[in-house]
Design goal:
The chain is mainly alpha-helical and about 140 residues long. The protein has six helices and three strands; from the N terminus they run H-H-E-H-E-E-H-H-H. A three-stranded mixed β-sheet has the order 1-3-2. It holds the Pfam family Zincin_1.
Length: about 140
């Protein structure tokens, strides 16, 4: 007999990736178009180098990271660099999801993705906190 509770497994990297891509697809056209070329990746946890660069000791404190040049800083005269990128960290996301216990996983992934995309648009963490009370 199949029991839905005993058959549960943790969402995989691919599952989190699908949730993030669904959230990206659900963004309004104008926002989504401004994200074309942004690479989206999902990893289990941030590596030691990333954590050191961010001044973070606990890898479970970092659920997502935008790296690149914000749209507000880009210039046509810039030399091409690497692509802008959003990385979501699966285990940190799952840890937060479990701790919260009051939000759907897809909603949490979407929120983290939108937060990181906010950095792509040139918003600081403080700017994002002022317009999005989610983290309070």
């Amino acid at each position: 007999m199949n029991d839905p509770l005993t058959d549960l497994v943790a969402p995989s990297l691919a599952d989190i990736d699908r949730l993030a891509r669904d959230a990206l697809e659900a963004m309004p056209d104008g926002f989504r178009e401004q994200c074309e070329g942004v690479v989206l990746r999902v990893e289990d946890l941030a590596d030691d180098e990333t954590l050191a660069a961010m001044g973070i000791a606990d890898p479970f404190e970092l659920t997502g990271l935008y790296s690149g040049v914000a749209l507000t800083e880009k210039s046509f005269s810039d030399l091409p660099g690497g692509p802008d990128e959003v990385v979501l960290y699966r285990r940190a996301i799952l840890d937060e999801w479990a701790e919260r216990g009051d939000v759907a996983l897809g909603a949490l992934v979407a929120h983290i993705l939108v937060h990181e995309i906010g950095h792509h648009f040139g918003l600081s963490d403080e700017d994002i906190a002022r317009i999005d009370p989610w983290w309070e």
